[in-house]
Model the fold of this input.
Amino acid sequence: MTSKIWHPFTQHGLGQDIPEVVRAEGATLYTNDGREIVDAISSWWVQTHGHCHPKIVSAIQQQSAQLDQIIFAGWTHEPAEELAKNLSDFLPDTLNHIFFSDSGSTAVEVALKMALGFWHNQGQQRHRILVMDHSYHGDTIGAMSIGARGVFNDAYASLLFDVGSIPFPESGAEQITFDALAVFCADQDDPPAALIVEPLILGAGGMKVYTPETLREMQRICREHDVLFIADEVMTGWGRTGTVFACEQAGITPDILCMAKGLTGGVIPLAITAASAPVYDAHFSKDRAKTFFHSSSFTANPIACAAANANLQIWRDEPVQQRIEHIIRRHQAFAGQIAEHQNVSGIRQCGTILAFEINDASGNYMSAIGPDLLKFFAERNILLRPLGNTVYIMPPYCISDAELTAVYRAIEDTIVHFA
Ligand SMILES: *Cc1c(COP(=O)(O)O)cnc(C)c1O
Done:
């Protein structure tokens, strides 16, 4: 089939098959050629309660017939007000200023602009952003600048701004990370504006995990030096790591928190950057020059806000936490099952996410294995999308026992097949 569509992260020159999905329900995708596929990566980490959840469908239907879109600069509407109000049940009390945007990348860009505005509006020269090696924060220019550099952004390197990078806190070597952070923070000549991290698990960087204690210590160091602490919870938010937000496990409150993917249950685009009172207050003034200059056409779209409100309602009404606990226990059992396999290394789990590397027979990594793995899973009607030779499962919380078993079986097959 020839199509005019240019797909994201897709090398069309490889001539790979692009399947067409016509319908979805729960954790199942239905294709136009009659296949049923288990969505084991939540349609790229966004779906939480499963596809076409009736409460979200109905919220979208009702809202779209009532108020579909309205300018948000100087205007407001009930779905946004309700969402901002109800989010306080899920967020720490101090994160009570809610700024809307449309994607994880823009939520991150907004966070960076808030951080720089915070210092600028107080007459302080702080520009440097601190980041963690292997991080991913999105694909817009600013988000790329603060993310890992490599083949994905080589062509645009000249547009990316400089950052201060701290090493990823490898298990047992966390002190190296803390020391590097402390050195940056104490730099009087170029004091940093903020540190941004993906809390507990680095997603696109390879599902690399670190401990809540490490997260807490990084925040403590930032506090000590008045460096703003930004948590990018775009992927980790809404239950992924076992708690609604990953920061909860460290008992910390960031100054700025970004959320997107699961905010609407992963149904339609909406993002929020939540800020603390000091960040908001630095922009609050009679001086128009201190306005927070950011908007997009669809800021706080009412239909998207209605979907997010339905998501919050589902968290309140349904046993979401129990579903998450169940996946966590099943992942643990499966991890134990494959742990001894000589072809498997680096098994790790963070809440509903289970990840490991597939080795080749000689024990070397072979990152070129990625496309073969993808094909192998596709043939078994499982949607998994390994990052190189890193295989991970990130299912919607509604996934059934049978579906999860099918995913585990396909993974066991791969481990044997690629041995
Ligand atoms: C996906 C992701 C983003 C970007 O979100 P988009 O909605 O794809 O722009 C940012 N940060 C993290 C941690 C992510 O996983």
Observations:
- The chain has two domains: 12-53+319-417, 56-317.
- DSSP finds 13 helices and 16 strands in the chain.
